[in-house]
Write the structure tokens for this entry.
Amino acid sequence: MVPLSNYLALSGILFGCGVIGFLIKRNIITIFMSIELMLNGVNLSFVAFAAQWHALRGQIFVFFVMVVAAAEATVGLAIIIAVYRTRETLNVDRVNLLKL
Amino acid sequence: MLHYTLFLTFGAICVAGAVNLLIQRHPINSALSLVAVMASLAVEYLLLGAEFVAAVQVIIYAGAIMVLFVFVIMLLNAGEEARTGESRIALLLGIPGILTGAVLVAWVLEHAGSPAVAAGALPGSPRVIGWLLFHDFLLPFEVTSVLVLIAIMGAVVLASPAAKSISEGTQN
């Protein structure tokens, strides 16, 4: 038996690490991975609440979040490849113009 | 007691992987620590009785999405992150922010009067999930397939070199 608050604390720590990584990282791929970390933290709280309230719909929501994350990863990585092709850098500090 | 030990062990691996993702400067190391985070999260899902979600977590997240990440890192030959100058405002705001977050987490752990979650209390087997997915959530499921199709087309258009030459051709 694990209290719900422990799951929520773990979920909050993961989300917080994602936010910090999003803010301090300079590599565009690592920033993208931090977003995935945030999504994982949210998924954990979804599953914990689903178990808490005996509502399986929470797990269905996790499924949809995963599908959206997969779609986001495909499009995002394609954008990263396109950015690298035109600018030849992955540092977000050097990607500060919409138009070359 | 066994459940709590398992929760603590894999929760510690989760947090260690997340912190390692922040510390590492090479993106491939960050990606591998993210794989560790996702795999131990799958164990946490199993402890909560969500078998289907745990399997999908390993297959889709730790499998498909992270393979895509590693593939792109290798393809672009991403090297070590360049160190940029430290900003003073980040230190001024970040350290109090981290301390506040830690205090909040500790307060939640101390004062939460929530009842305990029994491991395996919920039948999250693929059979039940599939029934819900194909009856109550049929329309969202089908909309999801359209979303994935659009994502595939977007990725092909954005990442193919042909798209670039076409756009250059129209410009010239």
